[in-house]
Amino acid sequence: MRLGGILRSGDNTMNSSYALVRAWIVIMVWMLTCLVDADSKLYRYVNIDEQCGLNTNENVDITAPAGEVKVTVQQTSIDAVNCSLTLTAPAGKRISVFFEGVFYFPVPDCSYGSLTLRDPVTKQHLTPSQGVCGLIQESQPKPEWMTLYYTAFNKLEFVLHAKSTTLMGSIVFTMKYTTFTDTGGNCFRCADVEQKDVSVCIDKKLICDSTRNCFDGSDEDFRYTSNKSCSFKCAKGNQTISSEEIGRASCRERV
After folding, report:
1. pLDDT tens-digit map of 169-189
2. CA separation (Å) from 211 to 43, 50, 147, 221, 234?
């Protein structure tokens, strides 16, 4: 009788432990789901690859306030590069975009192939009319065209074209975009040191998330965000420092 009571007590304890474990698993799955949903709501990633050789014209609705357009077209995979991509943000928003890291569009000059950015509403070329091309390493000085571009309305068009016979390698580059308003509201205003003629005000959820969304990086700089958890990069090199390290010799060359 006593033995049976002990066994029953042990069974109850074991069942309670299993129930607790199951509850924790459910909670963890729910938390992970929330994190994934949060990421998908904040960032949208668009890829342009070998399909660019099929004369494709793709339209992508972007409800997320930021994201990337990543281009990777192998030299030998297609006969010609010829495609366009149109990003459409919610009504009332504008789109800003800038190059991130290296830029590889290896042709003799831009008459043989190039990337063009256009505002399809105003029909205005944002990049130079002949487009942009070339090989720009991350450590090299950036040409003037590797700057911030922005639309007047809620649409942005990428146009890629080249003959594979003129390509001297694969096309590889990444452009980061954000949707923004220029009328204020509950948003973070990028410092925009180099762009005085437009006010780029981005979603506040994008600040201090270790991702540069403002062209000048001010959304990750505590001097502009007033958020002490933000860090920023020294003026020379790619060293990232925290607010506690400001003033140390390791970052004397800071901006």
Report:
1. 999 999 999 999 877 678 898
2. 11, 28, 18, 11, 15
